[in-house]
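Field: sequence (string)
Field: structure_tokens (string)

Example rows 1 and 2, in order.
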Amino acid sequence: DGEFRDGKMTLSGRRSSSRGSTTLNRIVWQKMEGDRIRQRWEQSSDDGRNWTLLFEGIYSRKKG
């Protein structure tokens, strides 16, 4: 599921493990100044009460 709101594109979804537990994943892209984009991928095992950062990247347009 996803939406674009307040300058951020957010996608989220649940994933079940083979052990029966469920994790919630959330990836957010946000435009930064200087023609850059920040991406954050977070995961929650308690239905979104607490989040763990799995990845953060900053992308910039290739000059060329």
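Row 2 begins here:
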Amino acid sequence: MISVLVATYNGEKYITEELESIAKQTLPADEVIICDDCSEDKTVELVSEFIGQNDLENWKIAVNDENKGYCRNFLDMVQAAKGDIIFLCDQDDVWNHEKIKRMTGYMNENPRINALFCSCNAIDGNGEKIPSPKNAGRFFDGDRGTVEFFDPESFVGRSFIRGCSMCFRREIVPYLTSMELKGIMSHDWLISFVAALTGLCAHFDAALVDYRCHGGNTSFGERKVDRDGLIKRIDALENSVNGHRYIAENADSFKNMTVKLKRKIEKHIRFEEKRIDFLKRRSILKAVPLVFSVFHYRCYYGGMSGALRVLAGDIVFSKNNVGNE
């Protein structure tokens, strides 16, 4: 059984095109669950009309009683899904018509893979293909059909998988507790990390999603270096700490967890707590340990140029001090 989970919020501009691409799959989903997070536009109306006009009896839409945020919205839907293989879907992308068939086929041929994600093409607000943004990562524009595997250590401090490109097995659902994750470490990071800790997490280099790049999505929104930006940076770090702490506290549940990996996770938690402390207090003394930890900053982007960029960002953002509020 195959489930597709769609999270919506004020998505009236693109939602119909996204739903059409799911409905036209060569291997149809057995259930499609759409959960709206208290939209203030016509998203719910458009989704309901689409389901009714196309007689999609196995499609359901629900509306949250309160705004949960996209991460908890997805994780709560995961718990409700009945599929053996579960796909996640954003509200503004477009799926290749072979996406479910090709990814499910590969999962069925490789039972050790707990999560599989595909490559993406970048499109603009009008649906035209564009060069992938500089911060999009390397899983764009590929279509070689190759497969790459990732060990659990790859996910300590790093999130490089987009939820709209992934599917995963029902077996890992019990590990996916509903929690608040924002910023870089979100639901897709948690799913990927758990998949690697319990089996295999793999990238299938086939461009099966047209990923819409615009200011309204969560991945490519503009980052403002002001007080609000600082608060968001701290919030993202605190959620990252909570996510890593959840993994560390449940270490005994994961067959691929090692003593070395657990220590690495605990070290990363301490490092991000130092970053939070510096951003909140803006003390020169608090900055010194971070400067000496510059090599640890490499975990975010894998190189020194990225490490220096993040460290410089902390220093710049800290000028908008929030104090001990």
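free_text_note (row 2): The first strand starts at residue 2 and ends at 8.
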